[in-house]
């Protein structure tokens, strides 16, 4: 009877802990040798990410560093409900860009296989089925970004390729500017608009200068003349498809550009004295934008009712992160947390920022 009572008390304490800290705090941290690019499933149960897990017999015996890790990356999924870390890929083929379908029942990523570098992989989590699709159109040369359409029928790859999920075919997007030097495609979630970067000019030092284009139905709707470098953060559509956000420079200052296609309006947001940021991530509600400043982030809101071409200077609270990096931001579906990656120098791990308390909590830890 005493043993039963003790077990009952322990169970009660565990239930209380879970109720107090919530489902997002792992009781046992997944141990990996590197972790990047976190992305939440729509129900908040799973976090998929790029991972390196050395010590497995199927991996070569090498020293992990910032150069070798890219060719050893797997896709891992952390199941917060059962506190289990799953290594999905085990064929020694570099994998990257995990992206959940809107319903959260499928996970897509790209992988490279020697001699055939154009593989799209889709994992059906409900039946644990994994399918691989080889494309005759190059995929791996993209800027490492995948997005699903809001209806889950298409997967958009940022080098201009679209995958039809039902018919299992790849097509290249047709752009109204023809065969000019373009890159970094981003489709609105509703599929109505496509944005991309295009070379504006080449200077005397052979450096290419880029501008942002928005098109719909093979017609150019908008051309921005501000400098938009390829190395800047991804072009980011709000989840409701109403606003495109990106970074550009004007007069030596970095600006957050917000373009409203339906309203035919552009707003500029300057952070302080023009601080440069390295990552952009919309909240699921489209009401907030997280900007990464290496080891800090700021959360800003799109200006309400601002006039076309207006400039808003904001001084947001700068929130400290555990370590620095350039990208790797992901809001939780309930907007209570932001998952982020740290750089190789910081151990290449994933942490969770609690928005309310500003506490940084590790999701993964180094082996």
What key attributes describe this structure?
mainly beta, 5% helix, 367 residues, 44% strand, disordered N terminus, five-stranded mixed sheet, four-stranded antiparallel sheet, 1 helix
Structural category is: mainly beta
Q: What's the Cα radius of gyration? A: 21 Å
Shape: globular
- Please mark out the parts with pLDDT under 50 across 5 or more consecutive residues, or reply none: 1-28
Level of helix content? Answer: under 10%
Query: Which range does the strand content fall in?
Result: 35-45%
**Side-by-side strand order of the widest sheet:** 18-19-20-21-25
Mean pLDDT: 83
Q: Roughly how many Å apart are the termini? A: 41 Å
For the secondary structure, the number of strands is 31
> What does the main sheet amount to?
5 strands, mixed
Provide a count of the helices: 1
Care to describe what's here?
- The chain has a 5-stranded mixed β-sheet, with no helix packed on it. A 4-stranded antiparallel β-sheet has the order 2-3-4-5, with no helix packed on it.
- The N terminus is likely disordered.
- It is mainly beta.
- It starts with a helix and ends with a strand.
- The protein contains 1 helix and 31 strands.
- It is globular.
- The longest helix is centred in the N-terminal third of the chain and has 20 residues.
